[in-house]
Automatic annotation (TrEMBL):
Residues 13-40 form the Ribosomal protein L9 domain. GO terms for cellular component: ribosome. It comes from Kribbella hippodromi. Keywords: Ribonucleoprotein, Ribosomal protein, RNA-binding, rRNA-binding. Binds to the 23S rRNA. Pfam families: Ribosomal_L9_C, Ribosomal_L9_N. InterPro entries: Ribosomal_bL9, Ribosomal_bL9/RNase_H1_N, Ribosomal_bL9_bac/chp, Ribosomal_bL9_C, Ribosomal_bL9_C_sf, Ribosomal_bL9_N, Ribosomal_bL9_N_sf. The keyword Transferase does not apply. Belongs to the bacterial ribosomal protein bL9 family. It comes from the Bacteria. This is Large ribosomal subunit protein bL9.
Length: 148
């Protein structure tokens, strides 16, 4: 079965890759979970769009990752969330929220999948979050969660 990956699949490929898998694996696992779509000529045009977007977001090399790390570590990121009187949040802060806050603070565009939150952030205050920019480069971002 020929499929186009729409998300990263461990050991199989990256978004936009055309892969050949066994029928059962594709039909019962990849397609129902939204990890892949069926291959057609029209869908192949979407591949170029997906790959172009991935290349634009990708960090090229260790030197570029180090530059982005310096930008992120100098950034003061503030995230306004709904919270109760005691400082507990209604829910928790997600990596997508953090990526949006970094962008809003004037930082570089960061993939939400690259953001690692140790334990769920459920209180207001100062927190530290790790961003994996390159296999050898990780940045620590200072995040202030404020009731807003």
């Amino acid at each position: 079965m020929k499929l186009i990956l729409s998300q990263e699949v461990e050991g199989l490929g990256a978004p936009g890759d055309i892969v050949e898998v066994k029928d059962g694996y594709g039909r019962n696992y990849l397609v129902p979970r939204g990890l892949a779509i069926g291959w057609t000529r029209g869908a192949e045009k979407q591949i170029t769009t997906i790959k172009r977007a991935r290349d634009a977001r990708a960090i090229q090399g260790k030197e570029h990752a180090s530059e982005v790390k310096n930008q992120l570590e100098q950034l003061a990121v503030t995230l306004a969330v709904k919270a109760g009187d005691t400082g507990r949040l209604f829910g928790s802060v997600t990596p997508a929220d953090i990526a949006g806050a970094i962008k809003a603070a004037g930082g570089p565009l960061v993939e939400k999948r690259a953001i690692a939150v140790g334990s769920p952030i459920k209180t207001t205050g100062k927190h530290q979050v790790s961003v994996q920019l390159h296999p050898e480069v990780a940045a620590t971002v200072r995040l202030e969660v404020a009731a807003g």
